[in-house]
Amino acid sequence: MDISVVIPLYNEEESLPELYAWIERVMNANGFSYEVIFVNDGSTDGSWNVIEELSRKHEQVKGIKFRRNYGKSPALYCGFEKAQGDVVITMDADLQDSPDEIPELYRMITQDGYDLVSGWKQKRYDPLSKTIPTKLFNATARAVSGIHNLHDFNCGLKAYRRDVVKNIEVYGEMHRYIPYLAKNAGFTRIAEKVVHHQARKYGKTKFGLNRFVNGYLDLLSLWFLSTFGVKPMHIFGFLGSIMFILGFISVIVVGATKLYDMYCGNPYRLVTENPYFYLALTTMIIGTQLFLAGFLGELIARNSSERNKYQIEKEL
């Protein structure tokens, strides 16, 4: 099979027939063998009924129905598990992504040799309250991930080699960082394609401004896990050691200052009356706690089933 199209959706019953008809036209015009996997993320409207009807009429249509709303990342994860195509394409169900982009995305994967091609909605039909935070978000994601050639990490229209989606785990709200997940898994041939963005035709957006706050927190978590996930002692042990040494030196300085004043006959006060003593002591305690946190993290990581899981591309 050439292409699997994975479409997560939530309350999009009006757009589904039109979206599938559009995909079908594009696939037939280019002679692709394909499947369309609709992942119904706990919709409360008639979306599942529409998917069932499409499945009865078209053998290429497959569906997954969640009992409740889990989010876009779980929907993509389940869709990726079910996908059988050599190239997997994801798009949103709201008709803002154009299926006309599919042939070129497929060509870039199969002929140009990219692992992942991400869409870039260079001209957007969104309000400024959405586009400005999006630009800041993408700038931060580029800096943290090191993938400097992507302008729109969160674009729903992407294409992947099948190996990519079978070797990454999309969870929580990490769908925003699939290129970063792919890079961490060893799939570094990542490209971008300018795609057409259309104004929403039916319904309303399912995402609020809180996604930007959650997005930054997820990015921080992903960076930390990819950098120190299997070696927590490198960060906690290092910081703990530095803090303990600074605190220990400060205690020595406080004590030595008192002894010097006593020797020279200068006025002095008890060490316990000096506020710097307590600051130094607190620094030593925090340093010890950080070091122990790193040590416990190492013990947990040592017993993790993922500790020696590596991405092997080929064997002879």
UniProtKB/TrEMBL annotation:
Domain Glycosyltransferase 2-like: 4-167
BP GO terms, sorted: lipopolysaccharide biosynthetic process
Keyword vocabulary terms for this entry: Cell membrane, Glycosyltransferase, Lipopolysaccharide biosynthesis, Membrane, Transferase, Transmembrane, Transmembrane helix
Regions that span the bilayer: 235-256, 276-301
Xref: Gene3D superfamilies: Spore Coat Polysaccharide Biosynthesis Protein SpsA, Chain A
PANTHER family xref list: UNDECAPRENYL-PHOSPHATE 4-DEOXY-4-FORMAMIDO-L-ARABINOSE TRANSFERASE, UNDECAPRENYL-PHOSPHATE 4-DEOXY-4-FORMAMIDO-L-ARABINOSE TRANSFERASE-RELATED
Protein name: Glycosyltransferase family 2 protein
Species: Phocaeicola barnesiae
